[in-house]
Design a protein that fits this description.
The chain is of the alpha/beta class and about 190 residues long. Strand 3 and strand 4 form a beta hairpin. The protein has a 4-stranded mixed β-sheet. It has a 4-stranded parallel β-sheet with strand order 9-8-7-10, with helices on one face. Strands 5-6 form a two-stranded antiparallel ribbon. The protein contains 4 helices and 10 strands, in the order E-E-H-E-E-E-E-E-H-E-H-E-E-H.
Length: about 190
Amino acid sequence: HSRNLYTIETNEKEFRAQLSGSLRYQTLDPQDAPVVGDYVKLRKDPDEIAIIEAVLPRMNLFARREVYGSHLLQAMASNLDTLFVTVAVNRDFSVRRIERYFVAATAFGVPVAVILTKMDLVESISPFLDEVRNVAAGMPVLAVSSTDRLGLEALNPFRGPERTIAFVGSSGVGKSTLINALLGSDV
């Protein structure tokens, strides 16, 4: 979503769309607007921008509180098969932050897993894995090094053409590097 336009991806191609007038005015709660992962009903004219007529029912919705202490929620992604909480082990490692993501994801009915990144930068990954597993309540905990491509195969059961996954975490933890490694190219 950028300004009033949305990027829509189908099996055939990617194109731009905008909300229909009625959907725009009926969407009083920002959470009801389309987000990444949504399936939508479209009206398509080959010579014009497509029109989003409806957001189809969601399996789940991951959201966070809007900025500046607002009580409103900002929708982030929907219909997720797995939300990966991405945490670097070389700096800014916080089990409490991981717990907050667990609580938020669970509250929205979103399956969650943890990916510990940059494992090539620590002498041993075991203490980090143990600490996270102690609070993970059986949720998957994986460790990877995107630059060395270590541990990436552990994500295979979570991904594929019929799966929707998302990555959250602090800036600099390696989300983009991990996604690029999984896709096999810099996007």
